[in-house]
Design a protein that fits this description.
With 391 residues, the protein is an alpha/beta fold. Helix content is 51%, strand content 16%. Helix 4 (66-83) packs across helix 5 (94-106) and helix 9 packs parallel to helix 10.
């Protein structure tokens, strides 16, 4: 069968590539066309466009590149119509993908399947109407999404497991866990330059305060060692400037590119901005504080209940359904709260074991690895059933 996939950023490229591998394993005649990146290109030579030519985020970048984006959408629509796939498979990237779903559904070209559903449970719930109209089946990767999409809104949706668990389990097979390095604090401050400046500077100050208290209470013990998981598109100078302004000595910090999972596999604790990184940190068993600075934080905190439809921002807490890890967001993120949050999860801290117990609960709720395989099998079964019905 012929599959047209669209992934719009690096994580989607990785998830889509693994889904393509699963489809190939179950459908030996599988052919692919796709918008994606290097991971998908390693599975098939059917790349139509690299996602980087269309991946613009934020109001200003989108406006500045609007002509490019619209041209890419038009070319994608024409390619789907010309190639005539048996299925279009969308992977996250809702701003682009939901428009493609509308076009394919309107023209009745083929079924539309959505792997990694848009997070409309957090905001833009009105998009559910478009999903119901344009998408034949949703494949969910967060266990609580079933209640939202199926029970609340009656959509055709299936929880298949979380692909991040598959990817980390595979990584750990070739990189077995070792004992954590004493005092290693992983810092994951985000991927955009402004959020890195805001978050990393506060993470550093908190770590310094805790380190000073530890040295005062127990002179001679190892210093905290900060390791920054650097985003590939962000220059080293930005990280160095933040650390320098924070007074961090060169031997007390590292800036490491492309090895986030190695850092997490060695860390004792972590400070992490919200996002998939919070789930990755949990699956590596590293106690964490989730923190995200927002300008005018106290005001944003007041508006939060109107801006967000969920009680938490971290995937760990959303999956557990409770605050398993401490969240310090907007007005709650202050030097004092961040210092306290880090101190309480270091070895000997009074909340460390409770966080680890929460991680065990999270793994149970996520379930076993195999998300790409389950998704691929269900898509193929549905396509075979359609073919049988037509015959």
């Amino acid at each position: 069968m012929k599959y047209f996939l669209i992934a719009g950023e690096a994580s989607g490229d990785l998830h889509a590539a693994r889904l393509m591998k699963a489809l190939k394993a179950k459908d030996h005649q599988a052919k692919f066309r796709f918008i994606g990146g290097d991971e998908m290109s390693a599975v098939s030579n059917g790349r139509f466009r690299h996602f980087s030519t269309l991946a613009y985020m934020g109001f200003i970048p989108v406006i500045c590149h609007l002509r490019t984006i619209l041209r890419g959408m038009a070319e994608c629509r024409r390619e789907i119509e010309t190639w005539r796939p048996d299925a279009v498979i969308l992977v996250d990237y809702p701003g682009f993908n939901m428009k493609m779903a509308r076009h394919v559904a309107r023209k009745a070209l083929c079924p539309v399947y959505y792997y990694i559903a848009p997070k409309v449970w957090a905001w833009k719930e009105h998009r559910v109407k478009a999903l119901r109209r344009d998408v034949d089946h949703l494949y969910l990767i967060l266990p609580f999404e079933t209640d939202f999409f199926v029970k609340k809104h009656g959509l055709q949706a299936t929880y298949v497991g979380n692909p991040t668990r598959d990817e980390i389990d595979e990584y750990l097979q070739t990189h077995p866990r070792r004992s954590p390095r004493r005092g290693l604090v992983a810092l994951l401050p985000g991927s955009r330059q402004q959020e890195i400046k805001d978050n990393l500077s506060r993470m550093v100050k908190a770590a310094q305060a805790v380190d000073q208290e530890r040295q005062t209470a127990h002179p001679g013990q190892p210093r905290l060692h900060l390791v920054v998981a650097a985003a590939p598109s962000v220059p080293r100078e930005l990280y160095e400037n933040v650390l320098r302004r924070g007074g961090v000595a060169a031997n007390d910090a590292e800036i490491v590119y492309g090895e986030t999972w190695r850092i997490l596999s060695e860390a004792e604790t972590a400070m992490v901005t919200s996002g998939t990184a919070t789930l990755e940190t949990a699956l590596f068993g590293v106690p964490q504080v989730v923190c995200y600075h927002v300008a005018a934080g106290p005001f944003v905190s007041l508006l939060r209940k109107w801006l967000l439809h969920v009680p938490f921002v971290s995937l760990v807490n959303l999956i557990c359904g409770r605050e398993a890890v401490r969240e310090l967001v907007a007005g709650d993120m202050t030097p004092q709260t961040l210092r306290d949050g880090l101190a309480e999860i270091l070895p000997g801290g009074h909340k460390r074991e409770a966080v680890l117990a929460g991680y065990a609960e999270l793994e149970t709720k996520i379930g076993q690895p195999g998300a790409p395989d389950r998704c691929a099998e269900d898509i193929i079964n549905k396509l075979n059933a359609r073919s049988t019905t037509k015959d």
